[in-house]
Design goal:
about 290 residues, mainly alpha, 3-stranded antiparallel β-sheet, two-stranded antiparallel sheet
């Protein structure tokens, strides 16, 4: 059966998100725990020495990033990628009335899983290392005693650069309050840090579950095209959650834009993106299948 035109109704957005949301919370919890556990791998004395010398590499070099961090992320994310892509791919084939089962073991799915899992871990590691570099250099320049700053800074490890600097500034501001004890200052800064760490974990999990859902339907469409179930000129259409307060201006700019199954979405303002999610965010974009 050749499908000449399939418009992107809301049902495509709904089933992609229904599947992704099944795994979102568990993945967010696991990500938060992995990021938090990274703090426990770093000795306070190591942070003190890094602060004394203004050398972030003292901390970064003390961590076995592969064993203590990256392998744990891969262990949680790879099977979730597989499952989400298999479920969304199967649902997309159901919508196309294709009479055979969708097989996750296809070149499109396997290539994406292998590459994206590694890329995701590399990006999170890079962001975490950059945050350590920045917060240690900022701490060194602030002039507080290394012993005083070491514990609060350890609790910032795992955040992005922007968030870790925000916590450090908040901690320094609290220290100016005469009526706050040192313990109270540290507890308040730690509460703020935990909120931001949770937010980061949620963002990573949201991005990656929707990433897998979108790649799952793309893989199914590409295999369907190769098998002659849809026409070669069939296109995709970007569907943003236009009514959501979480939908950013970048994603709204791509809303309604069309792209080939193998080609990028193009925006005059933001350039080329291969598909949603277009960046690390909490937007809830998906795709539909259309023709020219």
């Amino acid at each position: 059966m050749i499908h000449k035109a399939i418009n992107p109704p809301d049902k495509e957005w709904k089933y992609q998100h229904k599947i992704a949301d099944q795994f979102f919370q568990d993945l967010a919890d696991a990500t938060e725990l992995i990021l938090s556990n990274l703090q426990e791998e770093i000795d306070i004395a190591t942070i003190e020495e890094a602060l004394r010398q203004g050398k972030p590499t003292i901390i970064i070099d003390s961590i076995d990033w592969s064993e203590q961090f990256e392998d744990k992320l891969l262990l949680k994310y790879e099977p979730v990628y597989n499952t989400i892509m298999a479920l969304t791919g199967a649902e997309a084939w159901k919508e196309l009335s294709i009479p055979i089962a969708f097989n996750i073991r296809n070149p499109y799915s396997e290539k994406w899983i292998a590459e994206n899992a590694a890329n995701m871990v590399t990006l999170v590691t890079k962001e975490t290392k950059q945050a350590i570099r920045r917060v240690i250099l900022d701490g060194f320049q602030m002039g507080f005693a290394p012993r005083q700053m070491a514990k609060p800074i350890r609790e910032m490890i795992g955040l992005t650069e922007r968030d870790s600097r925000a916590v450090l500034k908040y901690w320094a501001k609290l220290n100016e309050e005469a009526d706050l004890s040192a313990r109270r200052v540290d507890n308040m800064a730690n509460t703020y840090e935990k909120q931001l760490l949770r937010k980061r974990a949620l963002t990573i999990a949201r991005t990656e579950t929707l990433n897998a859902a979108n790649r799952g339907i793309e893989a199914s469409w590409q295999v369907a095209r190769d098998g002659g179930y849809i026409l070669p000129e069939t296109q995709r259409e970007w569907i943003a959650a236009a009514g959501s307060c979480r939908t950013c201006k970048i994603c709204m700019d791509y809303n309604g834009r069309k792209a080939p199954l193998d080609g990028p979405y193009v925006s005059p303002k933001y350039g080329e993106k291969m598909g949603p999610p277009g960046h690390v965010c909490n937007c809830r974009c998906s795709q539909g299948l259309v023709t020219k």
